[in-house]
Every structure is written in C-alpha cells, then in structure tokens.
Amino acid sequence: MRPLNYVEQQIVVQTSGHFGRRLPMEFCGDLFRRLSPMMTSSVRMAIEGSSSPVGAPPNWLRRAADVRVLGWVENETGGTILHVEAPPLGEAAEDIYRQSALWDTKPAPDDTALNVFARAAKEVRTGNSDSSLYDLGLLRRFRYTDQLFGRDVEFIDVPDARTTGTPLVRLDREVAVRAQQLTEQIPASRQVRVSGRLDMIRHSTRSFEMLLNECKPVRGVLENADEIEQLKSLLGKSITVVGKAIYRPSGSVLRIDAQGVEEGSKGSKLFAEIPPPISRRVPTARMRVGEQRGNWLDSFFGSWPGEETDEELLAMLREVRG
After folding, report:
1. Where are the alpha helices (DSSP H) in the chain?
2. Averaged in consecutive runs of 10 residues, what is the pLDDT profile of the chain (322 residues)?
3. Contact at 8 Å (CB) between 112 and 86?
4. What number of other Cβ atoms are within 10 A of residue 42's Cβ?
5. Can you list the domains of the chain with their CATH numbers?
6. How many CA atoms, within 13 angstroms, populate the side-chain half-sphere of residue 124?
7. How far is 271 from 322, CA to CA, in rounded Å?
8. Confidence at residue 309, expressed as pLDDT on a 0 to 100 scale
9. What is the Cα–Cα distance from 313 to 276, expressed in whole angstroms?
C-alpha cells in the first residue's frame, strides 16, 4: 500500500489557564484522548452510516483517522494553536472512493478526519434533529466532552473544510448540552421486518441500500460481515430484512441494523414500510435503577458501549444510580 500524503491543518484550543505554547502533559493526554475517538467515530459515521459497529476498526478507518500532531504555538489571546496533519480521505479509503455508488453523507475525497468531525459537531451544535452525520453512539461522545469543558478548556475550534481561511466550527459546553438534548429525543430502536428491492451494496463497509414502497431508499448495515457475500447474488432483487430500526431525534429512520437478509418479499404491504418509533428514551437525569425491565444496560445505552474510557463508563453508571 502506497504511503499517504498528509495535509497540514490547525486546531485552536482556548484554555482558562491560558496555557499558550506551554501545555501541561496531563492536559495534553486528556485532550487528545477525547478528540481522537470522536474524529474516528465521525469518519465511520459519515462513510459507514454507523459510528460504532461491533468489531475492530477496518484498515481504511485507521488510515483515515491517523491525525498527527506537529507542534503548537500561542495565539494573541493566550490560546493554543495545534498544528496537525491528516491524510485526505480519498487516499486513506481509496477502495471505498473508487466505488461509483456512494452515500450522500460521504465526505469529499480531499476532506480529512478533522473536517468530518467539525461538520458532525456543527450538526449537533445547531440541534439538527434530522441529521445523518451522528447517531446515539456519536452523540454520547459529544455529550461527555462536558467533562473536558468543565475543567481547563473553554472552547475548541476545528476547520470544517480543507481550504485555508475556512470558518471554524466551535466545540464547547453548548455542544455537550445539545448532545444531551438530542440523545433524549432519539426514539428507542425497535425490531422490524422490511421488504424492498436491494439497490446498492458496499462490501468494504458491510452496508447496503434497499428501495421500499415508492422507491424510498433506506440504508442498512449488516451485523454479520460474512452475509455481504450473500447479498451479491441478490442485487436488484426483492429482499426481506430482519433487524433493528435506528431512528433520528426527529423520528425518521436513520438506518437498519440488519440481523438477517433473505430473498423475496413477504407480500404484505405491512412490510413495505418501516414502522414509526414506539417511544422516546427516558431522559437520563430522571432514570433510576428498577424503572426499567429486561436488560437495563440496553435500555440505558441503546447498546453496550465499545470504546468508552473507564471515566466515561463510570459517569454513565453514576447517572443510572442517581
């Protein structure tokens, strides 16, 4: 695999201590430990349609999220300008970008992980409840930046495009607050059976698109990567998918996490549309142990986290206990 070209970009970090170019080591560790997973999850969400699938990150994602720190300087307000470099996504995920069938959320090939992360942050900050750039897993990461802004950081500015002079997107406590609000608006996922025509397959991301009644497209992500081979022979044919419908805060369908796919339609018009959500999530501030039935972990998190830090998991558990 040929070496990647890297593009230099800047991140502005304003701190209450006006650290400038003299950043404490502990602060650096905390900052980078939170930013890196959010960038990775943002890229995965934009390209795969899910921010935290089960399993190890694919090689293309590791390459795409390979952001390197070159150094830092102080700006005129005592803030810190981080000089970083990241590969263009079109090079890092070259095989994916060669495919002609692409999602509408897929970034431009010259975008970097920083740009994708910034756009997801912008969608959260503006409270866009019908966005395809975040899901519950990514919202949870934005929500827990509140722990970062509650200490040393006042705000972080990130470019949403590669072009020099591009307006910066601000990540601050407001984003964490908005992420919490959007999280509480997301309806609980529900088990569904849906029939339609298989219109597109993306082998590299375990994803597909099917057309429902009146040619309405719906994205799906296979939980079992081995089933992608089965889909190749079904392209253009009627299929029935069994899985979980994942909703946006607006209540519209974000994707289907497919547990199984079979050829043919069940015939009933009931399966030609994805049913609406049943209920909203219980706001975490009012959630107590004993108020949920069944698997309380799934009730609280939607699905058990896969990449959260110990600190974040403990904070989540404290919310459950009240």
Report:
1. 25-48, 59-64, 89-92, 94-98, 113-125, 136-143, 146-149, 173-185, 228-232, 296-301, 310-321
2. 87 89 88 92 92 79 94 91 95 84 75 95 96 95 86 89 79 94 94 90 81 84 77 87 94 92 74 82 48 44 50 54 46
3. yes
4. 27
5. 7-185 (no CATH), 190-272 (2.40.50.140), 284-321 (no CATH)
6. 36
7. 41
8. 57
9. 31
| C-alpha to C-alpha distance for 317 and 300, rounded to whole angstroms | 9
Q: Which helix (H) or strand (E) holds 249?
A: none
Q: Per residue in 57-84, is it b (16+ CB within 10 Å) or e — as a string? A: bbebbebbbbbeeeebeeeeeebbbbeb
The letter for the amino acid at 244 is: K
* Tokens of residue 209, six digits: 């698109």
SS3 label, residue 245: strand
| Structure letter (DSSP) for residue 162 | S
Whole-model pTM over 0.85: no
pLDDT at 322: 43
